[in-house]
Amino acid sequence: MSAKPKLYYFAGRGKMESIRWLLAAAGVEFEEEFLETRDQYEKLLQSGSLLFQQVPMVEMDGMRMVQTRAILSYIAAKYNLYGKDLKERALIDMYVGGTDDLMGFILMFPFLSAEDKEKQRAIIVQKATSRYFPVYEKVLKDHRQDFLVGNSFSWADVHLLEAILMVEEKKSDVLSGFPQLEAFKARISSIPTIKKFLEPGSQRKPVPDDKYVETVRRVLRMYYDVKAN
Amino acid sequence: MSGKPRLHYFNGRGRMESIRWLLAAAGVEFEESYLEKKEDLTKLQKDGSLLFQQVPMVEIDGMKLVQTRAICNYIATKYSLYGKDLKERALIDMYVEGMFDLNELLMTYEIQPAEKKEQHFANMMDKAENRYFPVFEKVLKDHGKDFLVGNQLSRADVQLLEILLMAEEFKPDILAKFPLLQSFKARLSNIPTIKKFLQPGSQRKPPSDEDIIDKTMKIFY
């Protein structure tokens, strides 16, 4: 096992993207092995590397970690992005839960039919602007600090930036009406590690396209129709 | 706010049940406010108690915690059910997230439309018997200890017991091929706080029947 974390997933965002973001934000270099064929996946399954037969899987610190939340929590704690005490951790967990739910509406988007995509786009925007963005807008407005929790950069900030950018891809002016979030987005984007991740050539993955969908379906043999949640 | 945690949810298992299990296992007494009609939920939403307008919500230590994982993480840490270091926490998290996935399948069975129920049932039983239970059977076999992680009781054990019992409600002989899970179940069920929770009259909720589902759908949808 190399010294750097190694990520096993498709060459696309999916559930691995939040992990890429967090490692990048922490300034941690990582390697990636991309699943492209069914054979590769079956080999991985047979090697016993996937605890529940699923990816994401991240090799790090002598472990083969699976389950996105487990991986993210570990990285956050290891790189001091998880608050300074139990109460801050509770706040971070709550905020991350919200952005996770929001990004969950976008996760299956590429797999939807054209008609369902339009409906889902409207749902994403509606949830973002009526349920989620107002919460983070208020948090920032109330404490007037640069970061969501404890006046210090945390996983919650990284995750929120990721969510904001993803929703903006669905509606570019979605932040109008959220001045705190506009300022937050600019501020966090200019943090050196994040700025680097946002530049072309980084390991950040682009908006999923049909090729990505095809790869996932082929590798996982996931040929059923996907409906929006 | 009283000294005891107060749970806000409907009078049924859903996403609150894992939280009830954890508190009970930790020997923490708690109170419950049940949502019975839509107005009960709206009231909580309007008074700003629900960060994302959703339940579960738990009032504890001066906070109104939402998000099931956030609540479980807080309780587990506070009551020393989360391992002794980062690596043990990682193992616990991996196991618990797997159980969470299986729980989702079990939990959503009742709300499946009639024509999808059979397929859903087959899928959840298949996942329980072929994806999840073999993992935990192997963990116990490999280290030969009483508990899943670090040779001491953790939330992983509590949540595994919860899910074993739920799976058995669907298929009583589901543990037939898993002797270590059977002895795990017996052993964990005997822990005094858990034994108490498993007795009639505790705050453990029964499986949801059609009535409860109907009522709940009216509150939330």
UniProtKB/TrEMBL annotation, chain A:
GO terms for biological process: glutathione metabolic process; xenobiotic metabolic process. Residues 3-83 form the GST N-terminal domain. Coiled coil: none annotated. It comes from the Eukaryota. Its EC number is 2.5.1.18. GO terms for molecular function: glutathione transferase activity. Residues 85-209 form the GST C-terminal domain. The keyword Transferase applies. Keywords: Transferase. Gene3D superfamilies: 1.20.1050.10, Glutaredoxin. The keyword Transferase applies. PROSITE patterns: GST_CTER, GST_NTER. PANTHER family: GLUTATHIONE S-TRANSFERASE, GLUTATHIONE S-TRANSFERASE A4. Belongs to the GST superfamily. Alpha family. This is glutathione transferase.
From TrEMBL, chain B:
Its EC number is 2.5.1.18. Coiled coil: none annotated. Residues 3-83 form the GST N-terminal domain. PROSITE patterns: GST_CTER, GST_NTER. Keywords: Transferase. It is an enzyme of class 2 (transferase). GO terms for molecular function: glutathione transferase activity. InterPro entries: Glutathione-S-Trfase_C-like, Glutathione-S-Trfase_C_sf, Glutathione_S-Trfase, Glutathione_S-Trfase_N, GST_alpha, GST_C, GST_superfamily, Thioredoxin-like_sf. Belongs to the GST superfamily. Alpha family. This is glutathione transferase. It comes from Erythrocercus mccallii.
